From TrEMBL:
Residues 1-29, 31-64 form the 4Fe-4S ferredoxin-type domain. One of its GO terms (molecular function) is 4 iron, 4 sulfur cluster binding. The lineage of its organism: Bacteria, Pseudomonadati, Pseudomonadota, Betaproteobacteria, Rhodocyclales. One of its GO terms (cellular component) is cytoplasm. This is 4Fe-4S binding domain-containing protein. InterPro entries: 4Fe4S_Fe-S-bd (IPR017896), 4Fe4S_Fe_S_CS (IPR017900), PSI_iron-sulfur_center (IPR050157), YfhL-like (IPR047927). It comes from the Bacteria. The keyword Transcription does not apply.
């Protein structure tokens, strides 16, 4: 699954620079995560970095974008050009 940012976001700006895929950007009102770029940090880190730094815990899994760890790894390879 990709991650998503809920409306509990306080726009603190700490998640965006932590994303190794550049999946997080400022939306109209709150930050948003591009599910096409989000790998939940698979291939980069053991845990999603945005979740680790979020002070209000507003970055859950996106139930509309269901992906396995294997699919997330395939996306990592496609985005970075690195091999698994």
């Amino acid at each position: 699954m990709a991650l998503m940012i809920t409306d509990e976001c306080i726009n603190c700006d700490v998640c965006e620079p932590e994303c190794p895929n550049g999946a997080i950007s400022q939306g109209d009102e709150i930050y948003q995560i591009d599910p096409n770029k989000c790998t939940e940090c698979v291939g980069h880190f053991d845990e999603p970095q945005c979740q680790q730094v979020c002070p209000v815990d507003c970055i859950p899994l996106n139930p509309d974008v269901v992906e396995t760890k294997e699919q997330l790894m395939e996306k990592f390879v496609r985005l970075t050009g690195k091999t698994a």
